[in-house]
Design brief:
single chain, mainly alpha, 16 helices, globular, Fungal_SecMet_Regulators, membrane
Length: 530
């Protein structure tokens, strides 16, 4: 699998989703405050039940029992995504606040951020927001899916029955991402691919099946079926383990070409899984037992089926450069996931350490990943998405500290620490995305999907601060970035309907916050010197 985001020889077609309105459930400030407080309390030890037996093994990845419980009905998270693409679910995990639609999403998801924004007692009518489309995140250049097809074309057509599934899935996602207009022409390709996704697939295992399943999982997330995609990518991950895709094999039994393809497939799968888990707030995947090396920094034309040795890695950008950097970032994201799911509000020292890890990751990036450097179009988009993902990770890591300060009616201090890191990342994210869009005419669906996703992540942080403390010294900057995001979302709306809906939310916030009476804010503290 390469990271090639270049030409894609399929018709350019995109779905125009149907708009459906949902009523959102607001969470009051007292509920948010109680949640924050309870999440930091550890349950008292019960010596009669919790004492470890001598035969028990304690795993460092296992979360200790606490008295923190979710304040919702467990049965609310059952879901049904079997209907057509009705756009009532949000695959990005952001604008779907109805638990009957979204499935379970953890505290680091965008849905949690939306609920917190709704909890602010400023009487804004946010409980009737239209819902959009979907990260991965779980997150990743559309080129990554296309790259799997590129790899498959370098090999003979598989004879295990996977070809119709793989071929039509590639056509479906290619049609989805490669046009600038909203059409439904990718749907027939998906339906044809789904026809070949039978129970027989569970009784087989091959590289081609892994590719097909993972591509379809990513397609389903982008098509607002995030839970279906999440389940499917779990099947793909299990199948990958079953065929030993996570292990390194050597000559002479395995050729360098075959091994390199397996590396690309495995690590692309890992990035997809990690991104989806972060997006939806679900436990991180383990790399225990994985010894396969990272792919080489080479282009497709640099490797051949009959080669005896891989050539030296190139010093410049290639189609795998972004994938290599994505893997390193995803490993940090997994550590962030563990911390957030274990503590909800991370330990201060651990958050600072993880922030430093992301900073060191930035410093170690090759110079061609600098934002001021313009690469070839098929390399530039993966680079941009990589950098935007890092901003998103910083926001998600540090956002709980900001929300805790607001929930306890404390000042928003922007001098240093996690709150400053969160706000800085949000500012950088909006500036980077809008700056890039202002210098390119491309509005393809693949670009629009990712740009919209991370604009929402950053803008909701700024909107929360602006609503909470409109007299803060940084308020004009927050308002300026929000307006900038609104303008960018406007330009993305023609190719991605969710962008229009996100724009409408932010416009309503900007308009109605300006009209709120001042007495609503007189108790909001402002940090000195911030």
């Amino acid at each position: 699998m390469s990271a090639n985001a270049g030409k894609f020889d399929v018709p350019a077609m995109i779905l125009a989703p149907t708009v459906s309105e949902m009523q959102k459930h607001a969470v009051d400030l007292q509920e948010a405050l109680r949640t924050v407080r309870e999440s930091r309390q550890v349950a008292p030890v019960n010596t009669s039940q919790d004492t470890k037996l001598s035969t028990e093994v304690e795993h460092h990845t296992e979360q200790l029992p606490t008295n923190f419980t979710e304040h919702s009905n467990a049965e609310d998270y059952e879901f049904d995504e079997s209907q057509d693409f009705d756009n009532s679910i949000d695959g990005m995990g952001f604008l779907t606040a109805d638990p009957h639609k979204a499935g379970y999403t953890g505290p680091q998801s965008g849905i949690a951020a939306l609920k917190f924004l709704q909890s602010l007692p400023l009487y804004l009518p946010l409980n009737s927001v239209n819902t959009p489309s979907s990260l991965d995140e779980d997150d990743f250049p559309a080129a990554r899916s296309q790259s799997m097809a590129t790899v498959s074309r370098a090999l003979a057509k598989p004879r295990d029955g996977s070809w119709p599934l793989l071929y039509n899935t590639v056509l479906a996602i290619g049609a989805f991402v490669d046009d600038s207009n909203a059409t439904k022409c990718d749907i027939p390709f998906y339906k044809e691919a789904r026809r070949h996704l039978t129970m027989d697939v569970l009784e087989k295992g091959s590289l081609s099946y892994v590719q097909a399943i993972v591509i379809m999982a990513n397609y389903l997330q982008k098509r607002n079926k995030p839970n279906a995609g999440f389940i499917l990518i779990g099947i793909g991950f299990s199948m990958a383990l079953a065929i030993g895709l996570h292990r390194e094999f050597g000559m002479p039994s395995t050729s360098p070409f075959t091994m390199e393809i397996r590396r690309r497939v495995w690590w692309t799968l890992f990035v997809f899984v990690s991104g989806a888990q972060l997006t939806l707030g679900r436990p991180a995947v383990s790399l225990v037992g994985v010894n396969i090396r990272l792919p080489a920094n080479l282009d497709d034309q640099d490797i051949a089926v009959d080669m005896e040795h891989l050539p030296e890695c190139k010093p410049g950008p290639t189609i795998t450069s972004a994938l290599i950097a994505q893997v390193k970032l995803a490993k940090i994201a997994n550590a962030v996931q563990v911390e957030l799911l274990t503590h909800h509000v991370p330990r201060y020292e651990r958050a600072v350490k993880l922030e430093e890890s992301i900073g060191n990751w930035w410093k170690d990036l090759p110079p061609y990943f600098n934002q001021e450097v313009n690469l070839e179009p098929h390399l530039e988009l993966p680079k941009r998405v990589l950098l935007w993902r890092s901003f998103h990770l910083r926001i998600v890591l540090n956002r709980p500290f900001l929300f805790e300060a607001i929930a306890t009616r404390s000042a928003i201090s922007t001098s240093e620490g996690p709150i400053n890191s969160c706000l800085s990342a949000a500012d950088e994210c909006v500036t980077s995305i809008c700056g890039f869009l202002n210098h390119t005419d491309s509005r393809k669906r693949g670009l629009a999907w990712y740009a919209t996703y991370w604009l929402i992540t950053a803008s909701f942080v700024q909107a929360t601060c602006y609503i909470y403390s409109p007299t803060h010294t940084m308020a004009p900057s927050w308002k300026g970035h929000l307006q900038q995001a609104v303008d960018c979302l406007e330009s993305l709306g023609s190719s991605h309907d969710m962008a229009f809906r996100a724009r409408n939310v932010l416009q309503k916030l900007l308009g109605e916050t300006c009209c709120l009476p001042l007495f609503l804010f007189i108790f909001v503290p402002v940090a000195k010197g911030s």
